[in-house]
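Pilot study result, target chain (251 residues):
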Amino acid sequence: MEELILITLIIVVVVLGIISVISGIIDIILFFSYIKYNKIQNSSNKTGVEVAKEILQYRNINDIQVKTGGSFIFGNSYSHYFKKIRLRRLTRNKTSLTSIAMGSQKASLAILDKENDKDMIRRIKITPFCFFGTLAFIPLVVIGFVLDLIFFKADGIVALVVTLIGLIFYILAILLSFSTLKSEKKAQHLACDLLKELNLANENEIIEIKNLFKLYNIQYINDIIISILQLIKEILKILLKITQIFQKNKH
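Predicted structure:
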């Protein structure tokens, strides 16, 4: 039984490694596509900030700020808690396709939030647990290792408990990934509709913006696959640990 679990675990780790490499390649493609569309001027001659503000005003949303975010830490994002849309410095003041794509999509997330979209509500509720849970999990692993070493003679009992806690975080991360994908796609569709409705982009530009959004969606799906594989890996680690503890106590 232990050998079977170990072999399965190795296979999952290998597949996880391959998917991670694919994810890295997608990141590179997405980065260059982002830059490519950031060099193409849009027909409305408006920046991402201007488009975001115009959309928010059009939908009578007046309590959301549009700010510049870091190029790598926050990126293009919408925060329910800070009532803020952050746009990268790379695109904030550019009159490019990338700029209006990001500005309109993040403004659309704010609209979904205001309209109490169910996927957006779920995303907002789960996000703090994933963020603070991940931060708390790192010291828990260290504490578990020390306790096992000192009090349980490296039997791995505390480590097993910590792994079980980690399992909960992985499940939450998967739920968050699904909610994020759904809400992002809804915001993308809404953004394209609003860009048309307000004459901020022509038909050809909408097609190119949709192509950019598709790349983001592929990455979201890839992240979900990685999260599921991580979950399977943690389950197998728990089964392996239980088997090892059982066999040790048996002897």
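One observation from the pilot: The chain has one domain: 2-250. A full batch analysis is planned for the follow-on phase.
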